[in-house]
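Researcher: Let's do a round of design. I'm pasting the structure tokens now; please hold your answer until I've finished.
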């Protein structure tokens, strides 16, 4: 969640079962018609990621159902998708995209430059999310011809093309946006088949897909509220893949290499201990600094997530070029924490999503804060709807814990209305300078911004969430790293 998105599921309401999409759930168009079931935790509340915060919708639909002009590769590089290529003017303000020909939406409409104009203009006029401000840098979008779209920026922007690789760059049909919450219309290799609310979403292969046909005819996204239930489903054959292990200490039960395989890589998901900078006691920088000194991050990672993941100390993951290890900024020092509190004792409310990593981490944080005189009352909230309402939207919390999974999302701290309620104009200036400058200036400015964020103790950064996948032996194409918003199903196959 910029932006929340990023890390959470989605708010809103979806009634009943979604209507069938163009591809159905039968896998038409894929000769083998093989199926695969993948286990997930956070289920979307609807399918409209233009109006609903959260990561669960783009996780399921981006790249798979919706495509953009570009997408992120496994190493974070920007690669072509619906655009075969693009040219950038010498002043870095004009991007000319050459589009693939003979691409169709699942409603039968052809994809042309008119749709590029429509989709990008719609971000500014119809999207409801805070992250849409990333594309405020666009001055105008024009159609040169059916296969050429020209985007002119108000100023040079290092982040523009990267933003197009997120949900912001998804292409929509001009005749396919009437019911985005229930009927997604995209150009991707899969279409929506059916939805059993509270249970599963089924995607079927798109028979008219412009590119390489996916190896699998049907993908079922199976949702679990309990880590043990998801583990048991893999052990008993109910699913083929656990998309993200929710109980790392349980990995031993999948140790048989004749039955299972484990993939471990990295993500850009920062598990953040959020502090409400906009109200007491965390409007006091010294109290926020005390919290950071009170947390033994190494012990927390070992206890809460079986040592899986990485300590980074900032809102920047190692996959970003401007990453610096900031774990030494606030050493574990309870005496220093008590000194910063000045003898005060505090009672605070920690409202967290009822997700395993947050619940486990909250117990450790509560125990460690108690050692310095801060009593934290843990209140688990139903996720996503209740957490989104109270914490993200209303800002009615003192502490929270959430995994921010959106790529390059440090800019969420530049919005003082965002749920952190952090307000430092200097931080925003650094981000603006970074976006417009050279690549070296970008890296330098963003390093300074990360340092400022850390110095201000705007939040505490508990650990970087690992990409930890367990699957049946014979499943191929599993992503080692999860550094984009989507879980890309297009390479998955079964031997």
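Researcher: That's everything. Go ahead.
Model: Designed sequence:
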């Amino acid at each position: 969640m910029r932006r929340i998105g990023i890390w959470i599921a989605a708010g809103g309401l979806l009634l009943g079962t979604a209507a069938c999409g163009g591809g159905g759930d039968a896998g038409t168009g894929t000769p083998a018609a093989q199926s695969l079931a993948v286990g997930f935790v956070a289920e979307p509340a609807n399918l409209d990621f233009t109006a609903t915060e959260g990561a669960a919708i783009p996780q399921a639909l981006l790249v798979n159902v919706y495509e953009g002009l570009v997408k992120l590769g496994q190493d974070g590089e920007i690669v072509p998708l619906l655009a075969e290529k693009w040219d950038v003017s010498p002043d870095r303000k004009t991007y000319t995209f050459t589009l693939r020909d003979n691409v169709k939406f699942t409603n039968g409409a052809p994809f042309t430059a008119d749709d590029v104009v429509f989709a990008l203009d719609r971000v500014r006029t119809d999207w409801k999310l805070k992250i849409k401000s990333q594309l405020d840098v666009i001055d105008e979008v024009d159609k040169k011809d059916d296969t050429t779209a020209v985007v002119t920026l108000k100023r040079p922007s290092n982040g523009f093309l990267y933003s197009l690789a997120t949900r912001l760059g998804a292409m929509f049909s001009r005749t396919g946006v009437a019911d985005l919450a229930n009927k997604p219309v995209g150009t991707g290799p899969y279409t929506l088949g059916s939805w059993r609310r509270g249970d599963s979403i089924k995607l079927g292969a798109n028979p008219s897909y412009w590119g390489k046909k996916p190896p699998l005819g049907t993908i079922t996204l199976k949702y679990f509220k309990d880590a043990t239930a998801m583990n048991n489903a893999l052990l008993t054959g109910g699913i083929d893949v656990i998309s993200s292990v929710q109980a790392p200490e349980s990995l031993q039960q999948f140790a048989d290499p004749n039955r299972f395989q484990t993939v471990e890589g990295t993500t850009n998901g920062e598990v953040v201990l959020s502090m409400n900078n906009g109200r007491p006691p965390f409007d006091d920088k010294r109290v926020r600094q005390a919290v950071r000194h009170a947390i033994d991050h190494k012990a927390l990672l070992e206890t809460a997530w079986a040592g899986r993941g990485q300590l980074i100390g900032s809102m920047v993951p190692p996959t970003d070029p401007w990453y610096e290890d900031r774990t030494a900024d606030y050493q574990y020092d309870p005496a220093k924490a008590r000194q910063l509190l000045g003898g005060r004792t505090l009672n605070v409310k920690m409202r967290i999503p009822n997700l395993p990593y947050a619940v486990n981490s909250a117990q450790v944080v509560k125990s460690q804060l108690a050692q310095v005189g801060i009593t934290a009352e843990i209140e688990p909230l139903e996720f996503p709807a209740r957490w989104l309402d109270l914490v993200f939207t209303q800002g009615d919390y003192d502490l929270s814990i959430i995994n921010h999974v959106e790529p390059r999302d440090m800019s969420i701290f530049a919005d003082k209305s965002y749920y952190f309620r952090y307000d430092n104009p200097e931080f925003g200036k650094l981000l603006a300078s970074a976006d417009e400058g050279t690549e070296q200036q970008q890296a330098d400015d963003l390093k300074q911004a990360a340092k400022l964020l850390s110095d201000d103790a705007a939040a505490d950064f508990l650990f970087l969430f690992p990409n930890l996948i367990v699957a049946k032996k014979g499943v191929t194409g599993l992503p080692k790293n999860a550094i984009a918003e989507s879980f890309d199903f297009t390479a998955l196959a079964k031997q």
